[in-house]
């Protein structure tokens, strides 16, 4: 996996003759997470297959296939990829207008995806058509600036008294503890717990926990797990209950979601 870390920890050694550089990375037989690091450039992490999770300045973003996370320059982050992931890593020079865009997940259109892959192939070629690449990069930057954002972030619990709850639910999204359980665990009233969660996230405790679980489900579905396995892992009483919640919150069934991620493959 050392070659993957090399690209994840991209540095000044990359060519300075291009304001955008791109490369394709194929994960091997195991899941991988890079150490915390930051770049002078902006970074776009496009998931072509498999699942990707990025933690950017403490904010957790799930990146399903056919979407990308944007990481502005100098933002400390880690990148986690599932064993079957194929990822396009794009680095954008800090002087471009794109680097003023805040961190987040971007929807990737068919055109944007093809532009990124064309740039990968072009920069990997022995001989480069400089004029063609110039126009390609110009169009690519315009498309990136126009890409709509997607709500694939797990709302952060900022309050210091909620950090144990936050870390446990990130590690164990199937944790069955109710608001009563967590209030007792954190030595506060259930009302106070609900107030602090609402204050940090704008969501009720139950809705916030459901959001954590659904975003975890996206990553597991992208990694190739079945709908039945994901629903069991998250502690749902039945597959149909999981499908109902998934469809209510994301507007489609898990099966349709998985199929939608492979359009254009």
From TrEMBL:
Pfam families, sorted = AraC_binding, HTH_18
Q: Domain HTH araC/xylS-type spans what residues? A: 183-260
Which superkingdom, per the lineage?
Answer: Bacteria
UniProt cross-references to PROSITE patterns, sorted A to Z:
HTH_ARAC_FAMILY_1, HTH_ARAC_FAMILY_2
Keyword set, alphabetical order: Activator, DNA-binding, Transcription, Transcription regulation
Supply the name of the protein: Helix-turn-helix transcriptional regulator
